[in-house]
Amino acid sequence: MLRGMQKATKNWLGRLITGLLLGMIAVSFAIWGIGDIFKGFGSSTLAKIGGTEIGVEQFRQQYNDRLQQLIRQVGRPIPTEQARALGLHRSLLGQLLAEAAIDEEVRRLGLNLPDDVIAQRIRNDPVFRGLNGQFDRSRFDAVIRQAGFTESRYVNEQRKVLLRQQVIRTLTGELAAPATAVDIQDRFNNETRALDYFLLGAEQAGDIGEPSPEALTKFFDERKALFRAPEFRKVDLVILSPEELAKSITISDEDIAKTYEAQRARYVTPEKREVHQMVFQNEADARDVAQKLTQPDTTFEQIAAAPDRKGSDVNLGLVGKAQMLDPAIADAAFALQSGQVSEPVKGRFGTALVKVGKIVPEVVRTPAEVADEIKSTLALERARNEVRTQYDKIEDERGAGASLSDIAKKLGLTVRTVDMIDRSGRGPDGNPVPGMPSNPALFNGIFSAEIGVENDPIQLAGGNGYVWYEAVSSTPSRERPLDEVRDRVVERWRTDQIAARLKEKAAQAVEKLKTASINEVAGEFGSKPQFIAGLKRDRTQGEFPADALDVVFQTGKDQPGTTEGSNSQWIVFRVTGVTVPQIDMASADAKRVQTALVNAYSEEILSQYISRLQTELGATINEAALAQVIGGTAN
Fold first, then answer.
1. What are the pLDDT digits (tens) for 315-326?
2. DSSP character string of 167-198
3. How many helices (H) and strands (E) does the chain have?
4. pTM of the entire predicted model
5. Structural domains in the chain plus CATH codes
C-alpha cells in the first residue's frame, strides 16, 4: 500500500484515478467475475445489473467519448488494439455498472431530491451562464441539445448524479488520514540512504572457459524453449508515407535554385570571433588602461589578471555577432583584427575595452553543395500533401475490388515483399527487418490476419502515413537443433555461469564486510570502493535499479548487503547513513499524502460497498456485443 500511495501522488495517471471516486471502483467489476455469458436479453443490451440495463448504443457513445478524451490528453492517435490493451472498455463498463448499482440502491432506499434543488444546481452551473454572469436559458438549451440531451433527460441525469454523490459522501465524506499514517507514508516516500559499495562484473568473475559437450547438451535440453524458432510470415506491403512518396517525386533545377535564393541564410554559417572584454565603471578608467596597453611588454591579459585591476575580464567565448547582447560591443569586436584591442566602447553595462582572439571566417555553402538537401526537403514537403490524396485513391480502388498488387501498379506504388518476419518485426537473423515500419500494431495485424486475405490499413506512428498488408504464407514455429544455435547456446551458458559466479562472490564479500572495511574487501575482489548518498525508494540512480533499491531499504544501518544491479553486475554495499524526514503536517507534501491516503481509504470502502451491491443484485455482460463495440475480442 505504501508504494502504491507513493506512486499515486507522483504521476498524472495516479492523480487522475484518485480524483475519480467511481473510477476507482470500476476495476473491481473486472475482478469480481461479471463477464458471464449473457443470456436472456435482447441484442440491444450490453450489460445488466439488478433491474438496470446498459444499452449497446449508450455504451458505444460513451466509449467513443472516453477514447477521444484520452486521445486529447496524450496528444496522439490511439489505435483500437492499444485501447483494448489499456482496458479502456472494462474501465468504462465497470464505472457504468457501479453507477447503476448505486442507482438501484437509491431506489431501494427511496431516496429523492426535490425539483428546486436540481433547478438550483443547474442555475449555479457556470457552463450555463451568459455574458452577464447569470443563468442564460437559451445557452442552457443550446448546450444540452449539443450534448444530445432533452431538458427532462438532463434534469433526470443531474438528479441521479446528486443522489449518487450523497450516497458516496455518506460513506466517505468524513474520512481523515491519521497523523501516524501520514508520517509513515511520508517516511516511506522521502527516507534517504547513503552507502559505501563496490561492483562485481564480468571482470571479477574470472575465466569461465568452454562448456563440455555433455554440459552444453544438458543446458540446451533444459532451455529448448529459449532457442525455439518463432513463427515467421511472408507478407506483402504497400507503405504510403511521405518518405516513400518522395522517392518518386522529381524536383527541377529551377525549383532548387529558387529555394536556395529564398532560404540562402540557412546555408550560411556566420563568422565567429573569440571575444574578451574588460568593463569599467567610467570612461576615464578605461582610457587609463588603454594608455597602459600602448606601452611595450604590457598585455591585455596581464592587466585583466592584476589584483588591482579596475575593470572585470569577461571571456565571451567564440561567438557570432548576432549572439552578442550588447550591439556596441559587437560592432567593436567585429571591426578588429585578430589580437587587436579596441578603444574604450560605451556599452550597456559600462565602458569596455574589447580584444579579439581567434577568428573563424563565414562559411557559405554553394548551391551545388546543398542541391541534394534542398531536393529531399522539397520532395518530402510535396509528398506530405499527397499522402491523403493517395490514401483515398487506394481505398476507392479496394472498394471496387482491386487487389493490392493491381492498385500499386495503377498508382505507381511499390509492393514490398518481406519473405520472413516474426511477431517482433525481426528476421531469421534476429535483427529488425530493414525498412520495416516499427509499429507493434502492424506486427500484430500481420500475425492475426488470415493468409491470403487483404486487411484494413494501419496508420503509421505520429499519423505519418499508412501501410496496407497481406499475409502470403506462414512458417510455423519449430524447435531448433543444438547445432543450429550452438553459438547462442554457448553465449547464454557463459552468461549464466558468470551470473552464478558473481552471485557467489557477492555473498562471500558480504560475509567479509562483517569484519572488514569496504576498501579492504573491494581490493580483495579486484574492484574499487564507491560512495553514494541521497538514495530514495522511487529514484533509480547509477547502478541502482528499482529492485536493487528495494534490497537497500530492507537493510539496516551499518549492515552489509548485496543485490543485482544494472548491466548484469552485482552490488556489494554497506548502509552508512539513514535520514528519516520530519514531516510538517501543514506542508504541501503532507497534504498530498493525506489526500492520497483518504482516496485509498475511500476506494477500499466503496469497493466493499459496491461488491456487496453486486452480490445482491447480480451483474451480467453481453461479451459478444461488447466485442462488437470495441472492434475485437473483449479481453
1. 888 999 988 888
2. HHHHHHTT----HHHHHHHHHHHH-EEEEEEE
3. 25, 17
4. 0.54
5. 2-175+593-630 (1.10.4030.10), 192-225+485-579 (no CATH), 232-251+369-475 (3.10.50), 271-361 (3.10.50.40)
Cell of 445: 495485424
Residue 42: the pLDDT is 55
Q: Residue 128: which of 142, 140, 119 has the closest Cα?
A: 140
Let me know: does 289 contact 278? Beta carbons within 8 Å.
yes
Report the DSSP beta bridge partners of residue 240.
466
Spatial separation of the C-alpha atoms in residues 236 and 232, rounded to whole Å: 13
Alpha helices in 263-366 (DSSP H): 283-292, 300-305, 327-333
Residue identified by cell 544494472 is: 566
Q: What is the pLDDT of residue 626?
A: 87
- Over residues 336-349, the pLDDT tens digits come to 999 999 999 998 88
Residue 428, all three cell numbers: 531469421
Residue 330's pLDDT is 93
Q: How far is it, in rounded angstroms, from Cα 524 to Cα 513?
A: 11
**Burial (Cβ within 10 Å: 0-12, 13-18, ≥19) of residue 556:** exposed
Q: How many CB atoms lie within 10 A of CB 2?
A: 13
Q: What percent of the chain has pLDDT over 90?
A: 47
Residue type, 331: D
